[in-house]
């Protein structure tokens, strides 16, 4: 990418092409967009396989490509989930420091974070595989209100009010 940005001949070709197409994209856009769309290749291959079936042409290579793309996309999705989970752990590990003898690494898989209200005060409910943590942002500092083992957690719907569901823990 760096070399392409400094290659005047290549840059001129890209500029000419962009002007013909009426678009103004950077060289990086041409290189990054296909990578960002890799998960859509599976749909393209599926459509291609269907079209080849309709006109009775061999499509073994298309089916093989579909299987390969399924493998690639499942790995990409798995890596994305792991990356997101890792950043959640880092964020909570750095910002929730007032819990003694609690290691966030032992809390299991991160499931969800959502806002809730306890006695009209907004709190965040962070749900992991083994624990639920209720925290509150007080003066830009996360303060732990409660750590609950999922095994001990009993949740039941209390009532519906103004499009809100109210639960009892």
TrEMBL record:
Coiled coil: none annotated. One of its GO terms (molecular function) is guanyl-nucleotide exchange factor activity. InterPro entries: DBL_dom_sf, DH_dom. Residues 1-79 form the DH domain. It comes from the Eukaryota. It holds the Pfam family RhoGEF. SUPFAM superfamilies: DBL homology domain (DH-domain). This is Pleckstrin homology domain-containing family G member 1 (Trinotate prediction).
